Amino acid sequence: MRVLISGASGLIGGALRLRVAGEGHETATLVRRAPRENEVQWSPGQVLDPAKLAGFDAVVHLAGKSIAGRWTETFKQEVRDSRVEGTRTLATAAAESFRLTGMPRALIAASAIGYYGDRGDEILTEESGPGTGFLPEVCTAWEAAADPAREAGLRVAHMRIGVVLAKNGGALPPLLLPFRLGLGGVIGSGNQWWSWVALEDVVGAFAFALENDSVNGPVNVVAPNPARVSDFVRTLGRVLHRPTLFPLPGFAVRTLLGEMGQSLLLDSARVVPQKLEQGAYRFEYIDLNSALRAALLGKK
Question: How far lies 53's CA from each of 4, 43, 91, 183, 217, in Å?
Answer without folding.
Answer: 8, 14, 11, 50, 21
